[in-house]
Amino acid sequence: MAVLALFHHAGGSAAVFRRLTRLLPDHITPLVAELPGRGRRWREPTLHTAEEAVRDLTDLLVRQVGTDDELSIFGHSMGAYLGLGVAAALERRGGPRCQVLFASANLAPQRAVPLFADGAPPASDEEVLERAARYGALDTALLRDPHIAARAVSLLRADFDICDSFVRTMSWTVTESRIVVCRGREDAFGDEHTDQWQWSSVQPLTTHTFPGGHLYLESAGAEPLAATIESVMTEPAQSPT
């Protein structure tokens, strides 16, 4: 069975993959993962380090994916970094192995710098929301509700902590998985930001661009993205070199 695990962006949830999962062919089984604090896991306390998040997602895949299944991971934005960490963790644990990591909408981790300085005073709510707004990932209408806005800030703080933790401690992680970079044509990240994903894998890098911006998978980019995922996942597996 071909399984595609999907990891969401900072402040996001499984909802970001609704359109994409409807477009996937029947022979690809989507496994949409959510970090604690959202969706069906909303009662669980949020995580704040990359180590915790990678362990949480790795445990999920070990429980739900068989060792004979053909596993790929699609990680969007923050999820791309966590996907890299999980792919490497699965290799160390000897569980199901990730054949392809689709690294979506994020610059190569070796080029990244923390969003917030280590040891600096906590960012204000406005600063947290401004960071998220740069990528068009905020529904400003929903933020008019103070309870929703407070919840959004809380999740973003936790996820930004995870991102910064990854950049500081795991940015040079290397996987045996093939990495396929996916990005929107109108996103902030171009070739100069994503080509260095090559340093994260022992296999050659492939890059695909799609219509749309940072959340291209929710708009016009969804259909060609689904077709690309199907094409890549049906190619013969490549052996690490």
From TrEMBL:
Coiled-coil blocks: none
Source species, domain of life: Bacteria
A Pfam family assignment: Thioesterase
Kinase is among the record's keywords: no
Keywords assigned: Hydrolase
GO molecular function terms attached to this record: hydrolase activity
Domain Thioesterase: 4-230
Family: Belongs to the thioesterase family.
Protein name: Alpha/beta fold hydrolase
Lineage: Bacteria, Bacillati, Actinomycetota, Actinomycetes, Kitasatosporales
